[in-house]
Amino acid sequence: MSYNFYAFMDRMKYIRRWSLMRSVRDENIMEHSQQVAMFAHALAVITNRLFGGRVDESRCVLYALYHECPEVMTGDLPTPIKYFNSSIKGAYKDIEERACKKLLNMLPAEVEEGLAPFLLADPCSEEYRIMKAADRLAAYVKCLEEHRCGNTEFEKAKKSIEDDLRSRNMPAVDYFMQNFIPAFMLTLDELEGGLG
After folding, report:
1. Torsion of CA 77, 81, 87, 89, to 10 degrees
2. Is the whole model's pTM more than 0.90, yes or no?
3. Rounded mean pLDDT of 99-126?
C-alpha cells in the first residue's frame, strides 16, 4: 500500500509565506518550519539551563517542525485575515485541525500514533507556548532581513511582532532577543569576525 503523508509534507516547499507583502526574498513554509524548530530548541534549552525550566526540548522541536503542516492543504492564510475576528480565527483553527487529521490518515496506523501528538499539539502546554514564541521570532527575523535589504514593507510588522514578543513575559525570549537577535543585522564579514 502507498501512503501520501510524506509526499504532502514535501509540498511545503511550494507554500509561500507573506503573500500580501512585497518581499526581497520569498520564504516558504518548509524553510520557515526548520527555522522555527531551531529557535524552539534554543528557547527550550535557554528555559531549562538558564531559568530552571522543565520543558521537553524534543517536544518543542517536533511541535515546530510540524506546526505548518495543515497549510499543504489550506495554503498560508495571511495573518490579517486569519485573526480578523474570533469567528474567522475559530473557523480557521477548525479547518487546520481537520487538515491535520486528514494528513494523519495518510499514514499507517502505527506511524500515525507516533506523529499525532505533534500535528495535534497541546495548545495548553509550555512546549506549545515556546513553539509559538519561536514562530514569532522567525517572523521577526524575516522582518529584520527585509529591513536590512532596504524593504520598508515590513516595518509595521516588525514593530508589531517585537511588541508581541516583549509582552509574552518569557525570560528565554527576552534572553534570545538580547543575545542573539543583534547578530541578524550583521553582514557576513561582520559575522565572520577575524577568521580570515
Report:
1. 50
2. yes
3. 95
